[in-house]
Design a protein that fits this description.
Protein name: Sec translocon accessory complex subunit YajC
Structural class: alpha+beta
Subcellular location: Cell membrane
Keywords: Cell membrane, Membrane, Protein transport, Translocation, Transmembrane, Transmembrane helix, Transport
Helix content: 55-70%
InterPro entries: Preprotein_translocase_YajC
Radius of gyration: 27 Å
Membrane topology: Single-pass membrane protein
Strand content: 15-25%
Strand order of the largest sheet: 1-2-3-4
Order of helices and strands: HEEEEH
Largest sheet: 4 strands, antiparallel
Length: about 100
Amino acid sequence: MLNFILLQAEGAGGGILGQVFLFGSIILIMYFFMIRPQQKKQKETKNFLEEVKKGDNIVTIGGIHGKIYAVEGDTIILELDKGFKIKIEKSAVSLEFTKRASGTK
């Protein structure tokens, strides 16, 4: 009976190595399919917001279309119609809709 229990205990050691390998591979897959693409998207958005300039046509997160009249630090003055301007935060500009609206990329 004691030999039977000891044999079962020895077999469990090989399973632990397989479980560690499986867990590590799941973490690696999550990194490449979830974390890395999100970091890339954040980097593209940051670069886009740093490069906006006067005259660019943009769309805000709220869906407001307009042309940049002026850039002042972290804020943008957006011209919606001739003579009608609003002040928005740079973080309110949407990268995805800007690409669609301007027809580039």
